[in-house]
Specification:
Largest sheet: 4 strands, antiparallel
CATH class of the largest domain: Alpha Beta
Helix content: 40-55%
CATH architecture of the largest domain: 2-Layer Sandwich
Shape: globular
Strand content: 5-15%
Number of domains: 3
Radius of gyration: 21 Å
Distance between the termini: 24 Å
Structural class: alpha+beta
CATH topology of the largest domain: Alpha-Beta Plaits
Order of helices and strands: HEEHEHEEHEHHHHHHH
Length: 251
């Protein structure tokens, strides 16, 4: 998505704020909102801009974030306030919240996807709460508005994480998810050890004992590395995940 500075070069009259929003076209850019006086735009320009830029509002929690990586947790629940209190007590890395979405900052202590699944199942059983969720992937702040639009669409289709969605992608490559998979592909490819471990697990058909032997490390060491990878990238290296991420790295 285009940044404010890039957009302003195309439309010099662009404003970051406006006291008369009703007279302006408000557009969500990658790093902020942009306001354009409707009177200076032709009908063709208004039509083009409203077509190109998403009409779905982007949450304010993506604004002015410190450098780092963040992932979005999406929830749909009747008792969202009760669920929020429980989540904040169990997940210390929640950075911001807006309505039914939570922004989690990447740290060395993030929960893995498997750990989240166990916690959510326990919440449902122990507190009698009924909810659905989607666990996003860690991304840089500048990508979060676009990531949000894509991930919220995936969540709306009933998936719980990118791995579940990726299974569908392998069966039907025509489904669009360029930004999310490209983001994950780039990060995985920057990490030589991750590529080596995924390859070893793939070659051993997810047999951890065989994979550890091929890597010349102890199985417990491999398990620690796998857990670290799952936390860092928000993925699951089970049998299905290994096939998906090996295919991604081979592209």
């Amino acid at each position: 998505m285009i940044t404010y500075e890039q957009f302003k070069k195309i439309f010099p009259q662009t404003m970051e704020t406006s006291d008369e929003e009703s007279k302006c076209l408000k557009l969500q850019l990658a790093d902020s909102f942009a306001y354009l006086d409707i009177n200076i735009l032709s009908s063709r320009e208004r039509e083009l801009l409203t077509t190109i830029f998403p009409s779905k509002p982007i949450p304010d929690i993506f604004s002015n974030l410190p450098l780092g990586y963040y992932r979005i947790l999406y929830f749909k629940a009747d008792s969202i306030n009760e669920l929020s209190e429980i989540l904040r007590s169990l997940v210390p890395d929640i950075f911001r919240q807006e309505k039914n979405i939570y922004l989690e900052e990447y740290t060395a202590e993030n929960l893995s996807m498997s750990e989240y699944e166990e916690i959510f199942e326990a919440i449902k059983n122990d507190f009698g709460l009924d909810f659905t969720y989607y666990i996003g992937n860690f991304s840089q702040p500048k990508d979060l508005p676009d990531i949000y639009l894509k991930e919220s669409e995936i969540f709306g289709k009933g998936y719980e994480n990118i791995q579940d969605f990726a299974v569908t992608l392998l069966r039907n490559p025509l489904i669009e998810n360029n930004l999310i998979m490209a983001n994950l592909d780039f990060r995985l490819n920057q990490d030589g050890e991750v590529k080596e471990i995924i390859s070893a697990l793939y070659q051993s058909k997810a047999n951890q004992n065989q994979a550890a032997k091929s890597l010349f490390i102890h199985r417990n060491t491999l398990l620690q590395k796998i857990k670290k990878i799952e936390r860092k990238y928000g993925i699951k290296l089970d049998a299905t995940g290994v096939v998906i991420y090996q295919a991604l790295l081979n592209n």
